[in-house]
Amino acid sequence: MEKEVTLPRSDEFEIQARSCTLFTNDRVPHDVLWRPGVRYRVPIFQRPYSWGIAEVHRLMTDLLMGYFGRNGRIPREQMFIGTMQLSAAETGSWGDYEIQHDIIDGQQRISTLILILKALQDLVPELSIWPRLDFQKRLTTAVSGKIQQDYLQRALETGADDLNDSAELNAYLRNLTGIRDQIRDDDEFDALKADIGSFVDYLCSRVYFVIIETRAPLSKTLQIFDAINTSGMELDGGDVFKIRYFEFLRKREGAAEEVFHEVSALYERIDRENSNQKRAVLEIGEVLALAQQILITDHELSNETRSLAGTTFFERLLDVSLGLQNWENFQPDKCRQVRLPLRFFSDLIGVLIEWDARLKQFRPEADAMIWFIWWSRYGRYHYLPAYFLHRFRDRSDRDTVAFQSELEEFVIELGKLLVVYSLRYQRVTNEGRQKARELMTLMSSNATHIEPTDVIAYLQLERAKCSGEIRERLLTDWIAHIPKAKNLVCRLVAMFTELEVDSEPENLGALLFETPIDIEHIESANHKDPMERERIHQDWGAELHQLGNLTVLEFDLNRSIGNHDYATEKRARYLAESRFRSVQTFAEENAEWNQERARARREALAERLTGYLCGPSPRGKEQRPASASVPV
């Protein structure tokens, strides 16, 4: 029965390194791995034992080469087989053992050495050293619940002759068989068997590890592992969060060690969903990014932490919460109030899976507005629709169809507001960021009486405030010289026509944003004829670069047309080759093109865009932009 374990204090940090042999060391008797009363454990968060026959064969070959002195080596030459990283010692009671270290790195080597000793014991079981080594009990594993420990025990208790089909899953037993076969096939097997004791002594006293023992919290121990493990697989942010969150649940919530399986189940759920969908529906980083924004809002944490990556945010939050390290903008008193139940992350995974499913059902305008959100200057707030879904999806009175309509309306209103703020200024502003934060506050768990309609009304009110300014910018700005503005407004104009011609166009967002396009000057700003170019600039003036003279056009088509006349060259190509209905409609209704027509189009489009972006949006139906008196 295991008793209470004494763990190192959370604020201690120490690294010790030394060279060790396995069991005996004539020079420094204490520097051995298997000291009396000491055992080792593969902790629950590690991967299973996974070395294959190739890795085992390579280690066994090196050991035999060192022992026999092959390839010009000295017989019984000292051998170094790598590093092992261990956690600080835990004290407790585990049968005959009072000290236990977790193996952070080195599981594969030490497990294989134990299997080698087992194979040697099977050959000569009467050696006097076996009881003192007690290698069968020196290693335990908590990986995969009891499964890996059962596999290890079976290998150490039954022997290779009992190999059957189950060994396909039992790497310990499979490798034990390979080791035994390699020993028997060795050219000097007879000499080896005749003096097994000498080979065992070699393994126990002449084979060296460098032991790195870290006295630090688990998360810091993993950071050290990541720093020194240059040949292994680097831990990414999601891997680190899994370990840190496990540590948090153990120390802050008093959870049992088995809670790691529940943490792992979160990751398995993501993998299962991606596998079922045969595409990357979501990653743990997306879950953490959404969780980050919700926690900052609900717990009134510093807004300065919103710009951090989700994995970095949680790394620092957990550091502060566990008292490991303070970070700028992470107030300790607030951080320690944050609760992180497993259900919180499980619910957010459900939210993002549901968001993906609902997105497929969006009507064309809402689908297109998702793209406009991403392409606005405020694309960093692309998570707000999922935030809305998180806030309102579990209302007991929710009507699924009605809520889908509310979600789409929220997306359309949000897209309009973010486009408005992208047109007002030529950069991301504090005012724009503040509006996003106000929106999240409105949707926080503390706002208990807020309904979806209240959030939508807020968006409508905020964009309506900007009507006059947006109209003026659309009328007067040289839109052609403002890349973000021209890309947004010209795509909106193209969207209007697509929705007018077909109320349910397929893949509207993809058409507008995945089709490689240019924003084309209908009257060429760089006419191929220098004399004509000079005349155009003199006659057209500012109108040449304003809204009325711009349109979307496929990239390849625009480059192949070049800077030719509209009437003699461009118009026919617009009609025959463009996929955009806005381009086709424009060409059909404009046999010729001049600055008067461009001025009229600019004024009409300015009114139309202002009305769409800043005007009222009737609830309960998809808004359709009103027809303009001139073609788009």
From TrEMBL:
Domain GmrSD restriction endonucleases C-terminal residues, every copy: 495-607
- Residues annotated as region Disordered? 612-632
What are the top taxonomic ranks of the organism?
Answer: Bacteria, Pseudomonadati, Verrucomicrobiota, Verrucomicrobiia, Verrucomicrobiales
- The record lists the organism as Haloferula helveola
Q: Ranges for the GmrSD restriction endonucleases N-terminal domain?
A: 40-246
Question: What is this protein identified as?
Answer: DUF262 domain-containing protein
Q: What Pfam families does the annotation carry?
A: GmrSD_C, GmrSD_N
